[in-house]
């Protein structure tokens, strides 16, 4: 029986003059992007779910190992970096297509402002709600007012390192994303009005991909500052442009997938073929490039067997809330309030740290994020965005 949403392939051999045929059922449907039905791309959802699970696993591993007094492989604690870079590549691809469309059709500020409003309605309500909860229940231990203002203006890592004591630390990547779309989008519109849409993007990509790299090489570090890491999202935008142009590389998704996974693995195991002194400034480039090279294969995955597709889509839909809130549950509640205070045994704290973020993420998705998304202003269709399946534009714009 063919699994729901699966792909059936046939094979045959000849034995003693008799042709023997058999079929193989795969749990995923490997269709070209143009044949994908409207709706969310399963392959992109799979990337999103994988990314957030890598981040969660990384943070759980470090803390659970301490609580349960077990040795955790060091590599487990670095999976989070890989997950974030996959997020950056995916975000750059999806949101970048909309920006490219705005700049290429009729570059005006109205469409860009609508884009920013839609982006803010997707990310900021939960961000500010959770920040308010943190400030009220777990206020910063140092410079509370200054720290609060930095988070309220999304400048927590704009020109200075993240606040002390790892406060709301996961938002470093959110700040990078928000500043990228504001600065990259504004630069792209300006260049498009001056040079034309087709010529503007290469200049914009060159600026945003090279300037941060030069900064990292100058200081020989990776860091979390916005202007040190803002180039990473541009790799996804570059893939979006190649996809829009029908570049030949998208004809070889499996080869690109193999190359992308190899890059991610090499970065994860510190095995990149570069001098050790360049590992810090260049590792993030290798990781995000690896994630970007996985995109062509992800676009080919249109469906999957229901037993696999449903949990992947469920996690992908709640990935933003999971990412944003899990460290508060893990550190401020499970570790400080329960484990260190001796209120619950280590195993119970670990179970709480795993289950509670999923429960709260589902509440956020159902009662906060989804209702707000339905009320966003309409983004006019552009040549780039309209080429995406309808559900992808709705989920990302």
How would you summarize what this structure contains?
Helix content is 66%, strand content 6%. The chain has helices at residues 42-68, 79-105, 109-137, 144-152, 171-195, 197-219, 226-229, 232-244, 253-268, 279-293, 295-300, 306-317, 319-339, 346-373, 390-396, and strands at residues 7-15, 18-26, 28-30, 301-304.
Task: Give a structural overview.
The chain is mainly alpha-helical and 397 residues long. It has 2 domains: 1-30, no CATH class; 33-396, no CATH class. Helix content is 66%, strand content 6%. The chain is built from 15 helices and 4 strands. It has helices at residues 42-68, 79-105, 109-137, 144-152, 171-195, 197-219, 226-229, 232-244, 253-268, 279-293, 295-300, 306-317, 319-339, 346-373, 390-396; strands at residues 7-15, 18-26, 28-30, 301-304. A two-stranded antiparallel ribbon has the order 1-2. The chain has a two-stranded antiparallel ribbon with strand order 3-4. A hairpin with a 2-residue loop joins strand 1 and strand 2 (18-26). Helix 3 (109-137) runs antiparallel to helix 14 (346-373). The longest helix has 29 residues, at 109-137. Mean pLDDT is 88; it is low at 1-26, 32-39 and 389-395.
């Amino acid at each position: 029986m063919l699994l729901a949403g699966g792909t059936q392939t046939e094979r045959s051999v000849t034995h003693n003059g008799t042709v023997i045929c058999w079929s193989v059922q795969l749990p995923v449907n490997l269709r070209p992007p143009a044949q994908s039905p409207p709706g969310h791309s399963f392959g992109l959802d799979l990337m999103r779910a994988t990314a957030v699970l890598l981040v969660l696993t990384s943070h759980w591993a470090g803390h659970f190992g301490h609580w349960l007094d077990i040795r955790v492989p060091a590599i487990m604690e670095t999976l989070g970096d890989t997950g974030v870079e996959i997020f950056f590549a995916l975000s750059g691809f999806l949101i970048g297509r909309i920006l490219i469309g705005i700049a290429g059709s009729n570059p005006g500020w109205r469409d860009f402002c609508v884009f920013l409003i839609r982006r803010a309605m997707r990310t900021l309500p939960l961000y500010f709600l959770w920040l308010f909860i943190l400030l009220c229940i777990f206020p910063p231990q140092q410079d509370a007012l200054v720290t609060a203002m930095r988070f309220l203006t999304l400048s927590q890592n704009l020109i200075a390192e993240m606040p002390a004591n790892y406060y709301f630390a996961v938002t470093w990547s959110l700040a990078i994303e928000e500043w990228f779309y504001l600065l990259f989008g504004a630069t792209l519109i300006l260049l498009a009005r001056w040079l034309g849409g087709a010529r503007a993007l290469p200049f914009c990509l060159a600026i945003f991909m090279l300037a941060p790299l030069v900064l990292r090489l100058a200081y020989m570090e990776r860091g979390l500052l916005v202007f040190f890491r803002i180039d990473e999202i541009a790799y996804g935008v570059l893939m979006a442009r190649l996809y829009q142009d029908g570049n030949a590389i998208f004809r070889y998704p499996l080869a690109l997938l193999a190359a992308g996974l190899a890059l991610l693995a090499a970065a994860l195991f510190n095995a990149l073929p570069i001098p050790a002194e360049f590992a810090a400034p260049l590792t993030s480039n290798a990781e995000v490039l690896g994630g970007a090279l996985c995109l062509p294969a992800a676009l080919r995955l249109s469906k999957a067997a229901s037993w696999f597709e449903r949990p992947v889509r469920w996690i992908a839909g709640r990935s933003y809330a999971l990412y944003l809130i899990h460290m508060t549950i893990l550190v401020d509640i499970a570790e400080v309030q329960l484990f260190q205070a001796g209120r619950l045994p280590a195993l119970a704290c670990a179970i709480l740290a795993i289950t509670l973020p999923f429960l709260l993420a589902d509440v956020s998705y159902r009662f906060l994020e989804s209702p707000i998304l339905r009320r966003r202003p309409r983004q006019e269709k552009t040549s780039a965005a309209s080429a995406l399946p309808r559900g992808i534009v709705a989920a990302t714009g």
